Amino acid sequence: MTLRKQSIVFVALCILLVAGWFATDYAKEIIAEVLIFGIFAMSLNLLVGYTGMMSFGHAAFFGISTYTVIALGVHLGVSGWLGFAAGVAASTLLAGVIGMFCIQASGISFLMLTMAFSQLLFAGALKWRSVTGGTDGLTGFVAPDLFGISLAQSAGARYAVISIGFLIVVALFARLVRSPLGSILIGIRDNERRMRAIGYPVRRFKLLAFMIAGGLAGVAGGLYAFLNAYVSTDILHWQQSGDAMIMVVLGGSGTVIGPVVGAGIFLLLKTVMSSHNEYWAFWVGAIFIVCVMFLRDGAWGFIIGRLSSLGGPSRKEAGLASAASDISEVKHDIA
Question: What is its main location (predicted)?
Answer without folding.
Answer: membrane
